[in-house]
Amino acid sequence: MKNVILSVALLAVFVAVVSASESTQARQARFDDRKARFDTEKKEITTFMNTKNLFKTVFKILFGTSDESAATSRQVLGVLVEVLDMLRSSFGQKARSSSARGLKDAVDDAAYAGATMLRGYVKSVLAGDDHCAQRHLCESSKEAVREGRELGYVVSQVGGYATGYLLQHQKSIPSNTISEAVRRGRSGEDCAKIYSNCNETFFHYKLSNTIVVIAGKIEEINLPEKVDIIIFEPMGYMLFNERMLETYLHANGRSNSGNFSYRAFQQLNKANFWNQENFHGVDLTV
Predict the structure, then answer these.
(1) Dihedral, CA atoms, 223, 225, 230, 236, nearest 10 degrees?
(2) What are 104-122's pLDDT values in tens digits?
(3) Among 78, 152, 167, 75, which Cα is nearest to 117's?
(4) Contacting residues for 161 by C-beta, under 8 A, at least 6 apart
(5) Are 259 and 248 in contact (CB under 8 A)?
(6) In the record, which residues are listed under signal peptide (predicted)?
(7) Considering all CA atoms of the chain, what is the largest pairwise distance in Å, rounded to the nearest integer?
(8) How far is 104 from 8, CA to CA, in rounded Å?
(9) Cα–Cα–Cα angle for 152, 156, 160, nearest 5°?
């Protein structure tokens, strides 16, 4: 009987040792896999940036050298935005996967916030008008503070000063205007609502003097006269604004023809509503 008990005990110890060994091996395998992916991404980004002469072109844009054509500059800056998106995604995933906060995590947060602010600056350089430039900076500052945790606020503040100085010389936007846009984002305000005059698409197609964007619900806005065409995209979310029949009836009174064309298909999307700090007066980030 003692031999049986001893055998069972030894078997249990053996199973525990094997399980611990397998657990250690699994953790090491996951660590090696993450490290390999990170090294691959780093190599791809470095090669990508060198191939596109990214640094060379960015410095020419910053310091006013006009050897590169404007089209090439905009194309390369567009590539830089994509690279910064990759970096932000990489830093964000690493920060979220860490259970214990340490110095390395703080560095990742600062790097994420820095990449976010730099991305906002590049998009503001590419912006068609000043309102869009301010909106990009506002949104970048807001995201840097939200995702960069404690250091995000500091990075946003310092980045706002640097961005204001650069854009003042590049696009003749007053530095205090840029600082105000960054401050509003840092405070968590609704950038899309504040800079609703951003009509970058119309500017790109040279229609900014022809098409006027009026932000607001059709039930609330005031129009001087009836219109010929109504372009609509009804949305319902989280049991808010789910009833749309009244909206159609109200819009019918604004149209000269009274005719509507209804969509023959629909699309469902998931929005990251949990990041909204002021959803009808409720902070969903808590």
Answers:
(1) 30
(2) 666 777 777 888 888 888 8
(3) 152
(4) 179
(5) no
(6) 1-20
(7) 98
(8) 45
(9) 175
Q: How many CB atoms lie within 10 A of CB 150?
A: 11
Tell me the per-residue pLDDT of 123-182, one tens digit each, with 9 for 90 and over.
Answer: 888 887 788 889 989 998 998 888 877 778 888 888 888 888 888 877 788 888 888 999
> Are 191 and 138 contacting, i.e. CB atoms less than 8 angstroms apart?
yes
Nearest to 78 by CA among 52, 110, 117, 46: 52
Distance CA 166, CA 182 (A): 14
Determine the distance from the C-alpha atom of residue 9 to the mean position of all C-alpha atoms in its chain, rounded to a whole number: 56
Instruction: Look up residue 285 and give its amino acid.
Output: T
| Angstrom distances, CA of residue 54 to CA of 51, 169, 233 | 8, 21, 39
Residue 146 near residue 285 (C-beta atoms within 8 A): yes
Alpha carbon distance 28, 213 (integer Å): 55
Neighbouring-strand partners of residue 282: 279
Which of 238, 220, 222, 232 has its CA nearest to residue 284? Answer: 238
Residue for token digits 């606020």?
153
Do 119 and 88 form a contact (C-beta atoms < 8 A)?
Answer: yes
75, burial (CB in 10 Å: exposed 0-12, middle 13-18, buried 19+): middle
Q: What is the pLDDT of residues 9-60, one digit of tens each?
A: 444 444 344 444 556 666 677 767 766 765 665 565 555 445 544 445 444 5
For CA atoms 207, 212, 218, 224, the dihedral sign is negative
Q: Is 267 left (phi over 0), alpha (psi -120 to 50) or beta?
A: beta
* 36/110 Cα distance (integer angstroms): 23
How many CB atoms lie under 10 A from the CB of residue 279? 15
